[in-house]
Amino acid sequence: MKRFSLLPTAYHLLLTAVFSGCATSYNVATDKSETLFFNTEREVQMGEAVAKRVEQEYKLVHDPELLARLDKTSARVAAQSDRKDLVYRFHIVEEKEPNAFALPGGIIYVTSGLMEMAKSDDELASVLGHEIGHVAAKHVVKRIQGAMGLQLLQVLTASTGSADARTQAGMDLAFASLLLAYSQADELEADRLGTRYLKRAGYAPLAGVDFLTRLKEHTFRQAPRRFSYFRTHPYFGQRLREVRSEATGQIQFDDYINQTP
Questions:
Q1: Tell me: the pLDDT tens digits for 135-160?
Q2: In whole angstroms, what is the distance from residue 88 CA to residue 261 CA?
């Protein structure tokens, strides 16, 4: 009976946590008003917590040459972000599959496989711009905010287990949500923003097209895996069209075809 006695209090705490932090603000990157349950400080704290979970799962790469390349490229692109209330941080994880993903608060990971696949700094910048676009548009926060609603209630109503265990459960859910696909609209918006930042930073505007074309060919040759760009970044045909349109104002007939190479 004790576990059920916490339900009214938990429900009250859930509402308090949600509505005390709830705020409507204008997002410069998306040119839209949005309602979020997390301010920037809480977002950064969440990102730090999830980063610990990521680094339990994947080994960080400390190769000086790779990190120097990442630092140089990321600094130029991040400086162009519409969102100025964050300090963006970039890391490489040891994973042969090419991928990249962003955490709340501006922490961005790329895999060693992606670093190898990006043949130029322009191509690497196009990937980083895409992930920075997700952060600027607050896609990461919105997705985890939606995923964690029920989990938060479950945590608050739990009668057993330590706070650390409950926090870990929440972070596991947040981490799992990062491995799922964004919505189509979010992906295309991140492509537009990423290409915009790429151009502002002085990189080749069509580098994203070159990288996505090679990545598309690579992806369709691979068997589906848990941690793959195909799973987390789908819609190659539409994405190529979006990137080309933002970069040049033009599209090609092939951009409408999302077929296996």
A1: 999 988 887 776 665 455 444 444 44
A2: 35
> Is residue 126 within 8 Å of residue 208, measured between CB atoms?
yes
Domain ranges within the chain, ordered by starting residue: 2-256
Q: Mapping DSSP to helix (H, G, I), strand (E, B) and coil, where does residue 143 land?
A: helix
H/E stretch holding 78 reads helix 64-78
Angle (nearest 5°) at CA 59 between 111 and 222:
40
The answer to whether the beta carbons of residues 76 and 125 sit under 8 Å apart is yes
Residues 6 or more apart in contact with residue 249 via CB below 8 angstroms = none
Task: Write the pLDDT tens digit of every residue in 57-67.
Answer: 899 999 999 99
pTM of structure: 0.75
Q: Which residues share a beta bridge with 24?
A: 35
CA-to-CA dists, residue 57 to 62, 190, 197, 247, angstroms: 16, 26, 30, 36
Residues 6+ apart with CB under 8 A from 251: 241, 244, 245
Strands 107-111 and 100-102, sheet pairing: antiparallel
d(CA 84, CA 216): 32
Please state which of the ranges 94-108, 139-153, 183-197 shows the lowest mean pLDDT.
139-153
DSSP conformation class of 183:
P
Model pLDDT, residue 176: 60
Phi-psi region of 86 (alpha: psi -120 to 50; beta: other; left: phi over 0): beta
Q: Which residues contact 143 (CB under 8 A, 6 or more apart)?
A: 177, 182, 186
